[in-house]
Automatic annotation (TrEMBL):
<feature type="transmembrane region" description="Helical">
    <location>
        <begin position="112"/>
        <end position="135"/>
    </location>
</feature>
<feature type="transmembrane region" description="Helical">
    <location>
        <begin position="17"/>
        <end position="37"/>
    </location>
</feature>
<feature type="transmembrane region" description="Helical">
    <location>
        <begin position="80"/>
        <end position="100"/>
    </location>
</feature>
<protein>
    <submittedName>
        <fullName>Uncharacterized protein</fullName>
    </submittedName>
</protein>
<keyword id="KW-0472">Membrane</keyword>
<keyword id="KW-1133">Transmembrane helix</keyword>
<keyword id="KW-0812">Transmembrane</keyword>
<feature type="transmembrane region" description="Helical">
    <location>
        <begin position="43"/>
        <end position="59"/>
    </location>
</feature>
Length: 160
């Protein structure tokens, strides 16, 4: 299959957008909200922005008519799903922290506990951020070669 440079560029954009999402919203904005002391509500800002990008990646992949390009947008969305798993695990840990501290009589101790658990809670997301960035580097290499992973080809076969 011969893949044009314009198709490679359009396919690469899916992976580049994912990495930009990670860079800006997770590696820059999330630590900034923590350092500025905005609190747990401040962590919603990068989350909402990241979810907007993930939604765009999903819908962009669904409406793409060129098979190679669509396959790479779908691959990028698979990586987004991993990130969503990290968000879910983090949310569950934060919810547990909220439940654990809601009945505490000592507000100072509750604040310390929330701070500690918040730092622990972001670890699943942080780990999946690092894993998916490495995966996206590999996917960008595949785009340059005009290739699609076998698993994606099975799930989303090329048009005849």
């Amino acid at each position: 299959m011969d893949i044009s440079d314009s198709e490679k560029k359009a396919a690469r954009w899916a992976h580049d957008l994912f990495v930009l999402n990670i860079f800006f919203f997770h590696l820059l904005l999330t630590p900034a909200t923590i350092m500025l002391g905005i609190g747990l509500k401040g962590l919603l800002i990068p989350l909402v922005l990241s979810l907007a990008v993930i939604t765009y990646i999903y819908f962009r992949g669904q409406r793409e008519s060129r098979w190679f390009v669509a396959a790479h947008w779908r691959l990028a969305f698979k990586r987004c799903k991993l990130l969503l798993i990290g968000y879910a695990i983090t949310a569950v840990i934060l919810l547990l922290a909220e439940l654990l501290t809601s009945g505490m009589k000592d507000a100072h101790m509750a604040n310390i506990l929330v701070t500690v658990i918040t730092r622990i809670a972001i670890m699943p997301t942080l780990i999946l951020v690092m894993v998916t960035v490495v995966m996206e580097a590999s996917a960008t290499s595949l785009v340059g070669k005009g290739e699609v992973p076998e698993k994606i080809m099975k799930e989303f076969p090329p048009h005849s």
